[in-house]
Design goal:
The protein is an alpha/beta fold. The protein folds into two domains: 110 residues; 271 residues, no CATH class. The chain is built from two helices and 28 strands. Strands 18-19-21-23-22-20 form a six-stranded parallel beta barrel. A five-stranded antiparallel β-sheet has the order 1-2-3-4-28. A three-stranded parallel β-sheet has the order 9-6-26, with no helix packed on it. It is elongated. Keywords: Membrane, Transmembrane, Transmembrane helix.
């Protein structure tokens, strides 16, 4: 039988197409398999990452600062994680990484806690054998931990107590000492904290927590730009946050910190002398305002209608607590927890908890200690999602406060 020569060309062409098709099919199967393996590995890494995060929440105090811990989760050398704990202001920052060969996933977050029962109360007032005196339209709502001498109504400038009940909650006995906090250690770390200094030309600086700390030294012009992330803002004198400025998750440190009217943002702000919050300022959750004085006067004061959600902390040397004053002006809306190893003078509204050495009222007729005049402290309004710092009145189990970029 004679076969045309053209048939051979067709056979070769078909064979070539089939071989190409088979090669493509083989490559498809190979890459599909590799993609499946990659996908399953990612799923496994995500599960291992979650396990690492849970490990930090349950055993957070077992990890030293600035030391990386490596774990083989199941002893099979297939599920490796690393954990790094770093201090970020008053918060503990964790980086958990799950890795296998050349693949890894990681999360960076800050850790906090659920408040315990005392942290859910309205007031914890140190028992200095002085009763708490209420004047005017003062409202204490929720459980109150008070001195043995209790609570009473009183008069200032011929104004008496105007409400039906002294406490809208349960009166409990407090203690003779405040719970201890670690502000001194935190301020010591702030003095040593340094970062890479950059010349900022644009109006926005966003620095990932996955990179080195960036330090911004503010000049006399103050802060009038947008800062976010792993950023430290410092000043040798006065640090002023202008109306045009905005901050997210940053840390600031200076002798005096001032927020001008219209400022919006959050972060941790540490002052060795004074913090001033002007009218129409909104400091969002999670914000820390903290002062620590060794000898001189220290104050945190609000001026007018402003909103703060987070934590106010004031501490200092054992002597001279009267030189430390938190002043909340009428119109202030604070949500969160206050720790004041000093004097708290409040005419605003506190939705949350107050731990305090003494209350204070300055009136025309004199200065009154352990008096409240036209103040509202409502421990029942603290949001159930609000977390406590690792400082006072907190449950031992950790919670993720915020995932950081």
């Amino acid at each position: 039988m004679r076969i045309s020569g053209g048939v051979l060309s067709y056979v070769l062409a078909i064979s070539l197409l089939m071989s190409v098709g088979l090669s493509m099919l083989t490559l498809y199967v190979y890459y599909a398999r590799m993609e499946q393996i990659h996908y399953l590995t990612r799923i496994r890494l995500q599960k291992n990452l979650a396990s690492g995060i849970q490990m930090t929440l349950g055993e957070y105090d077992h990890f030293e600062y600035d030391r990386t811990y490596d774990f083989d989760l199941y002893g099979e050398e297939q599920d490796s994680i690393s954990i790094l704990r770093r201090a970020w202001g008053l918060l503990d920052q964790y980086r958990v990484t799950a890795y296998k060969r050349n693949q890894e996933v990681s999360r960076i977050y800050t850790l906090a806690h659920r408040p315990e029962n005392k942290g859910r109360s309205a007031v914890f007032l140190v028992d200095d054998r002085r009763p708490l005196s209420l004047v005017g339209d003062t409202r204490l709502i929720g459980d109150c931990y008070l001195p043995v001498s209790g609570v009473q109504s009183a008069y200032i400038n011929r104004v008496g107590y105007t409400n039906d009940s002294l406490i809208y909650g349960t009166e409990l006995k407090s203690e003779k000492k405040l719970p201890e906090v670690t502000l001194r250690e935190a301020f010591g770390r702030m003095e040593q904290l340094e970062g890479v200094q950059l010349e900022q030309d644009n109006d926005t600086l966003i620095n990932s927590f996955d990179t080195d700390l960036v330090e911004v030294k503010a000049g006399n012009a103050g802060v009038n730009k947008v800062y976010s992330g792993h950023v430290l803002i410092t000043s040798q004198s006065r640090l002023i946050f202008d109306t045009l400025a905005s901050t997210t998750d940053i840390v600031a440190y200076a002798p005096v910190i001032e927020f001008l009217s219209g400022f919006r943002g959050n972060g941790q702000f540490f002052a060795t002398d004074t913090i001033i919050v002007h009218d129409n300022v909104k400091l969002t959750y999670p914000t820390v305002l903290a002062t620590y004085n060794r000898n001189d006067l220290a104050t945190i004061q609000t001026r007018g209608k402003c909103e703060i959600t987070g934590w106010l902390l004031m501490d200092g040397s054992k002597d001279g607590f009267r030189r430390r004053v938190i002043y909340l002006e009428d119109g202030t809306q604070f949500r969160g927890m206050i720790y004041c190893n000093g004097m708290l003078e409040t005419y605003g509204t506190v939705e949350g908890h107050v731990t305090v050495k003494r209350f204070l009222v300055n009136a025309q007729t004199g200065v009154y200690e352990n008096y409240l005049f036209n103040a509202t402290i409502d421990g029942t309004q603290l949001d159930t999602a609000f977390l406590a710092l690792s400082q006072w009145f907190y449950k031992k189990e950790g919670k993720v406060l915020k995932y950081l970029n």
